[in-house]
Amino acid sequence: MSKIAEIKAPVREEMAAFGAHFRGVLKSDVALLDTIMRYVVKRKGKQMRPLFVFLTAKLHGDCGERTNTAASLIELLHTATLVHDDVVDDSPKRRGFFSIQALWNKKVAVLVGDYLLSKGLLTAVDAEAFDLLKLTSRAVREISEGELLQIEKSRKLDITEEIYFEIIRRKTASLIGACCACGAASTGASDDEVEKMWEFGETVGLAFQIKDDLLDLGDGTRIGKPTGQDIREKKLTLPLIHTLNISDSNTRRKLLRLVRKAPKDPGAVKEVMDAVIKGPGMEYARVKMLELRDEAVQMLDGFEDSDSKVALINLLDFTIERNK
Q1: What are the residues facing 93 on neighbouring strands?
Q2: Closest Cα to residue 53, out of 155, 126, 139, 163?
Q3: Through-space distance between the first and last CA atoms of the chain, rounded to whole angstroms
Q4: C-alpha distances in angstroms, 16 versus 13, 163, 244, 263?
Q5: CB count, 10 Å around CB of 83?
Q6: Are 192 and 304 in contact (CB under 8 A)?
Q7: What is the pTM of this model?
Q8: Superfamily covering domain 3-321
Q9: What are the boundaries of each domain within the chain?
Q10: Residue 262, SS3?
Q11: What string of DSSP letters covers 137-161?
């Protein structure tokens, strides 16, 4: 049994039922749209975000129809943001598959993203799950603000560690926060319990993003070669921020000059990557990631031991031990 299959074990039946439910949600009587929706379903990988929803729900009670609604809402909104991201970034591929904008065109991709957002809203409204809609809308707002904050700071290259964490809290961590909050809310958990699970998911999301930062720089165990994509996009990630913080003023100016050249200069990308990999920035980021992991686990201390609690911790560990 694979690691992810082992993690899914406590909610295997619920996840299988969700798969059929989600395919039904995506159906359309417009032939082109239905074809694209089938392609979207086929591209779905480990379904980690719905898994966070179902395991968190199981931690608080029994999964029900509202849990399906919560997982569908999360998947629809998350997929919509990815489709729109690919248009903004002009990305030909997403995790090894051709992007929608590459296979069809940008106009189609934007409209598909809009369709997915509208399906998410209607799924919640039809189920009268307004509490779930409020939680996911909060995440979408945070994601948008995080993206714009990153764009603003990338232009000036003045991202401090504090600003970095604020960006990733909004951009990445808020969605995993919404997964866990929606899972708890779907079982009738109290507002305090829902907010606590948002904080748990957010902490997991911070660790998840730091792992992505490390993977982009190789992390020693990555399948395939390091890409340096973050540097090409002038994103200051935690390993690079720490490298800049400990550098003398001349080295710092040189590295920032190289980052500014990086979008059009592969040599500059390599030079920055080498500086980060050879310095203490990688280890510093790993330590921060593991601290966040331990913080998240401590948030579950109040729950009785159960298969779902063990699986949730294993899912957290899976997110920071992955090699792609």
Answers
A1: 98
A2: 139
A3: 20
A4: 5, 40, 47, 43
A5: 25
A6: no
A7: 0.90
A8: Farnesyl Diphosphate Synthase (1.10.600.10)
A9: 3-321
A10: helix
A11: HHHHHHHHHHHHHHHHHHHHT---H
